[in-house]
Design a protein that fits this description.
Length: about 450
């Protein structure tokens, strides 16, 4: 049916052009080429493709309904009303393209030589770090990608994307400068901690306990310190998660990230959800000692204080940090002993503390692996990172040797996950073949 108004005709053509461009949004399984070992897990690939297919289908329906309206009742509407409706659809269309580009930027790196396999191996480690015994939640798919910058970040699964739909996967941005060494575990597992904390509702639960403690403060200085702990709690919980997964490896990596000029290390920024860097390292040592008691935490804290002496900061900041140090032991005890409803009676310390990460145990494992390297190759990613970080802290593993070792092992994890998927697919194929196998020659042939 033809349209009468030039304005209506222009709008209809723009709407039809959206449909043509929408056809270019195809599943990534048809677009990307990569080594099998670099591929996303089938669960993550399926979740992303299903998300885009559903979004494309919903948008196509909106455009078709708009065109139908435009050719029918909408012909009598003003050009202003026609344009208003079209612009709303185009905004949704742009949101769909932004989602496609977001995933495409991450997935296209899988074709880079070496990079894709490393990212696949890191995803195996991230998935293990997120998993907690007890079945507290369904683990969402996780994907990693590289970007510039000193710190990692996460776009958590099941959070709202522009346009209102839920993100189908957790996307962890890994800084290129952290590849590869124990620092990658610190950054990676911290971001995993953000996802885990969201699934368990930890931040709101702990903050409620902190609000009660703030109400009990006897002085303005004490109140300020507890208010800062509350303001920083989301990042602190993520640090706590990482320490519980890999021990001192987390703190060693954190120290490298926040080693900045002194002004920034001591700066107390109440608008930043991250603790003051100087305080954050001291707190990491205190949380580590609470989970895995050992003199090494005190020694690491003393090194940090030697790098950045507290007396070198200004008179305005020094008393604030002093009050934070004074309240730190009570805060760590509150955090480790907190029992959120989602953990069904367990405390944070009980649920997040991985067994066997005491310093002497990790160093004993290191020596055993040196005698029998095959045992290291078959170890879990979190244990490997914990042992390597502990070895670095104890001076038994150099940075270059650690980097070479982890590069080989991360590649192995990617290959192992690929082998597991291949074996699963083969098993399913065998099961399917058995279901359709011909009847034995001795069996009676069914008749109708």
């Amino acid at each position: 049916m033809s349209v009468d108004s030039p304005a209506t005709w222009m709008i209809e053509q723009e709407a039809l052009a959206l449909l043509s461009r929408l056809d270019s949004v195809k599943p990534f399984s048809l677009l990307e080429t990569m080594l099998p070992a670099a591929a996303l897990s089938p669960v993550a690939q399926s979740a992303i493709d299903r998300f885009l297919v559903e979004e494309r289908g919903a948008l196509r329906g909106d455009v078709n309904r708009f065109v139908t309206w435009l050719r029918g009742p909408g012909r009598a509407a003003s050009a202003e009303e026609q344009q208003r409706r079209f612009v709303l659809i185009r905004l949704r269309f742009n949101a769909t393209l932004s989602h496609f580009d977001m995933f495409s930027d991450a997935i296209s790196q899988r074709s880079e030589n070496g990079t894709g396999v490393m990212l696949s191996g890191l995803e195996v480690a991230a998935a293990e770090a997120l998993s907690l015994p007890g079945g507290f939640y369904d683990d969402p798919p996780m994907i990693c990608y590289l970007d510039r910058g000193p710190g990692a970040a996460i776009r958590r699964a099941r959070t709202r994307l522009p346009g209102g739909r839920e993100n189908p996967v957790a996307m962890i941005r890994v800084p290129r400068e952290r590849m590869v060494g124990n620092g990658i575990a610190s950054s990676l597992f911290h971001e995993v901690g953000h996802q885990g904390a969201a699934l368990l509702g930890l931040v709101d639960s702990v903050r409620g306990a902190l609000d009660a403690r703030i109400a009990q403060a006897r002085t303005p200085q004490e109140r300020q310190a507890w208010t800062l702990w509350s303001r920083w709690i989301s990042e602190i919980v993520a640090d706590f998660w990482a320490i519980g997964r890999v021990g001192i490896t987390s703190t060693m990596g954190l120290l490298a990230v926040v080693s900045l000029p002194g002004y920034f290390v001591f700066r107390v920024n109440t608008d930043d959800p991250h603790p003051t860097p100087w305080v954050r390292v001291m707190l990491s040592c205190a949380m580590g000692h609470a989970l895995f008691p050992h003199p090494q935490w005190g020694r690491l804290a003393a090194c940090w204080q030697a790098f950045y002496p507290l007396q070198s900061t200004n008179d305005e900041v020094r008393p604030v940090i002093a009050q934070l140090l004074q309240t730190m032991p009570e805060f760590v005890a509150l955090l480790a002993g907190h029992r959120p409803p989602s953990l069904r009676g367990q405390s944070l310390g009980e649920a997040l503390r991985s067994p066997g990460l005491e310093a002497h145990r990790l160093l004993a494992i290191l020596e055993a692996w040196r005698r029998e390297p095959a045992r290291m190759r078959d170890a879990s990613p979190t244990l490997v990172f914990a042992v390597c970080g502990q070895a670095r802290a104890a001076g038994r593993l150099g940075a270059r040797a650690e980097s070479a070792l982890l590069t080989r092992l991360i590649t192995r994890w990617a290959l192992r996950s690929t082998d597991d998927i291949t074996a699963l697919c083969a098993q399913r194929s065998d099961d399917a073949q058995r279901r359709i196998a011909p009847l034995p020659a001795t069996a009676p042939v069914p008749t109708h």
